Amino acid sequence: MPYTVFGLPTHILIIHVTVVGIPLACLGVLAIAIRPAWRRRFGWWVAALAVIMVPVTYATQLAGTQLYNHNSYLQTVAAQHKALGGTLVWFVAAVAVLALALALAERRGYADHHAAMVVIAALAIGASAICLVRVVQVGDSGARAAWGGIVKTSNK
């Protein structure tokens, strides 16, 4: 993966796909877990988005590691962000697996086996909620690393 694209660090460019895509996938999984009618209609689309977000998150992590290693001044302020960001792909993978499980269970007719769907839906809701929290934690630590040292001065 190139360190820069058009003169900008790759991490800065692809982070926007991650920041939008992961919450969208998590909210989609929450929606299809709660509403069976939406699961039948949108389940495979939500599962596809969740699965796509796994390699996108991994690529963002790799680009972030390159940015971290390439700039020694970042290594003190961005250490927490790097540590949190390194775990995010596992949370996204869990959401993707459970989104696939929801869509597949619906297709295979497990909606008739109410207990099985309740268990899968509960796991999907929990994983999505935890993943949303982790995205906020990673994003907040990244914003603090990027903008924490900037002091606003008045123009008086």
Concise summary:
The chain is mainly α and 156 residues long. It has one domain (4-147). The protein is built from five helices and two strands.
Characteristic key phrases:
156 residues; mainly alpha; two-stranded antiparallel ribbon; 81% helix; 5 helices
Describe this structure in words.
It holds the Pfam family DUF2231. This is DUF2231 domain-containing protein. It comes from Actinospica acidithermotolerans. Helices cover 81% and strands 3% of the residues. It has 5 helices and 2 strands. A two-stranded antiparallel ribbon has the order 1-2. The longest helix has 35 residues, at 36-70. It is elongated. 29% of the residues are buried. The mean pLDDT is 89.
Ordered list of secondary-structure elements with their pairings:
Layout: E1 4-5, E2 8-9, H1 10-34, H2 36-70, H3 74-77, H4 79-107, H5 114-147
Antiparallel strand pairs: 1-2
Helix pairs in contact: 1-2, 1-4, 1-5, 2-4, 4-5
Keywords: Membrane, Transmembrane, Transmembrane helix
Pfam family, one: DUF2231
Organism: Actinospica acidithermotolerans
